[in-house]
Write a structure and sequence with these properties.
Chain lengths: 322, 322
Amino acid sequence: MEENLLVGVDLGGTTIKLAFITEQGVIVHKWEVPTNRDELGSYIVSDINDAIDEKLREIGLKKTKLLGIGMGAPGPVNMEQGLIYEAVNIGWKNYPLKRLLEEATDLPVFVDNDANLAALGEMWRGAGEGADNLICVTLGTGVGGGIITNGQIIHGVNGAGGEIGHITSIAEGGAHCNCGKTGCLETIASATGIVRIALEYIQKGQSSELSKVLEANGLLSAKDVFEAVKNNDTVAKDVINTIAFHLGLAIANLSNGINPEKIVIGGGVSKAGEILLQPVKEYFSKFTFPRVRIGAEIKIAILGNDAGVIGGAWLVKNELGK
Amino acid sequence: MEENLLVGVDLGGTTIKLAFITEQGVIVHKWEVPTNRDELGSYIVSDINDAIDEKLREIGLKKTKLLGIGMGAPGPVNMEQGLIYEAVNIGWKNYPLKRLLEEATDLPVFVDNDANLAALGEMWRGAGEGADNLICVTLGTGVGGGIITNGQIIHGVNGAGGEIGHITSIAEGGAHCNCGKTGCLETIASATGIVRIALEYIQKGQSSELSKVLEANGLLSAKDVFEAVKNNDTVAKDVINTIAFHLGLAIANLSNGINPEKIVIGGGVSKAGEILLQPVKEYFSKFTFPRVRIGAEIKIAILGNDAGVIGGAWLVKNELGK
C-alpha cells in the first residue's frame, strides 16, 4: 500500500511550485506551472487544482492518498481565516484562498506567507533543523523573512510578522524602498541593493574590475560583485563589507530580542556562501548581547527553492495533527 | 468561603515584593521584605517562605487557599527546569529556585525573568491588556524588556529572549555597557543614560538650565531633564529627542520582526509620560513598515511596580491551567 502524501504549493509572481511530499518531509514529485495573473489572479486556484489532478493521473495515484495542501502566498496572511490580506504581485486583496482552494480540491487547505513557509521548511528539514527559535532571512530580488519562536511562526497582529527586509538600516538619507520608507535592509542586502551600492561606489571613480564588467556587459549583477571579491577587488570588498555590516547589525538586534538558536540565510544572494557569511558572522558577534551570541549559529539555507513547498507540507502535517 | 489566591513574588536587588492576588488578577495583599544577599543569596528562599507564613497568620488565612507561587528573578531563566542561570545582583548561578522554593513552601512554584513577568502582568491587567503580541520595555536604572508572541513569552534558546536593553543603537563609538558591548540602548534610554547624555551636552558648553541644576545640586537626574523640557530648555529638548530617536528606532525595528499589537513602555523614566511618548511615537512611525505601523499602539505602562507580581500570578494561573 502506498503511503499518504502532503501537497506543498508555493505561489510566486511567475511560477507556482508544487510538490507531493511524504510525512517525513521527503519530496516525491515536484513540478511547476506558470502563474496566470489575468483577471486579478482569479484562475490560480483552478490552475492548482488542475495541476494536482493531472499529476495524480500521470503517476497513477488516487486523490485519497493526499492528506491536504499547505500553500504559501507572497503577502500578509490571516492564517486562521485562510485569507490573503494582499498579494500585490498577484492581484489578490482580502482573498479567501483557503476556502476557494478547499472548494476546488475537496482537500483540507492551510495557507501562510511564502517567507514564513520557507522558514518552517528550513526548521523541519533544512539548516534550521530542530530549532524552536529560528530567524530565516531570504536574500533575493527583495529581502524576505520568517521568524519562529516557541516552535511557532510569528504572524503578528495583522500578518506582517517577520518583515526583516523592512528593518530600517539607514535612519537618515537611505535609498527609497518599495514599501514607502527609506533605508530598509531590502535596499541594501537584496541582489538589487548590492548592485545599487556597487554602482554608487563605481560612480565615485574608484578603480575596480567591476567598472570593466559593467562596461563589457552593460549591467552588473550581485554575482559579479562576489566574483570580484574572490579576485581581491578592493571596491567589491568594500561593497560586501557594507552589506555584511547592515545585515549583521539587523539580525543581531533582532536576535537580542528573539535569542534564536539558529539563523538561516537563504535566497539567491546566499549562494555566495562564506564570502558573505564570514563578515556577517563577525558583525553579528560584535552587536549581540553575550548570552545571545553564545546561543546562536548562523548558517546558509540548504533547501533552496524547495523550502517553501516543504514548509507547506509541514504546515498540513502540523495543523492536521492538532 | 474565601476565594483561592495566587502568590506573586518579584525579587529585586534591594527588596522582595510579594502579593496575594485573586484569579482575576486583583491584588488583595501586597508587601515587601528586604533582599538578604548574604552568602550568595542563600537566605532568600527561606525569607520568602517566612514572609508568606507571617502574612497568612496576620490576615488569618489558611495556606490551603494559596494555589501556587509565580516568581520573577533578575537574570536569564530556564523556565522548564525552574533554574536561574545567573542573577548577578543576587549572587545566584545555576540556582534551582523552583525546586528549593517548592521544598520550602510546599506550594507549586513557577519562575521566570522579572522583565518577562512585568510584560505578562501588563498583558493580563495593564496597558497591554488582551494583546497576544506585545513588546514591553522597562526604562529604569537599566533597560529591560519582555516580548510576547502568540500569547507566549519569548525565552529564546538560553533564556536571553527580550534583551531589548542590549540592542545595539550606536554601532561605532557608543558608550560602554555593563554587558561588555558598546552602544547598547541601555546606555542611552535608561535613567543613567539620559543623565550621561545630558552631561555630554552640558560639557559642550551650550547654555541650559540643566547647568544651573547641576551646579546647585551637584548632580543631575533624568527627572531634571524632563522638567527642563517642560520649561522649553533647548539642550534638554535635544537630549530627549536623541533618546526618543534611539528608542523609537529600536522598538520600530523589533516591531518590523514581531508585528506587535501593543508596545508598553514602563519603568521610572516612563513617568515622563507624553514628553517622552510623543517623540518616540514619531520616530516609531517613521521607521516601521506601513502594515506594522498600522497594527501597533504605543502606551505607557499602568501597573508600575505591581507589574511583576501580577505577572507572577498570571504565570501560576496559566501553568496550573495547562
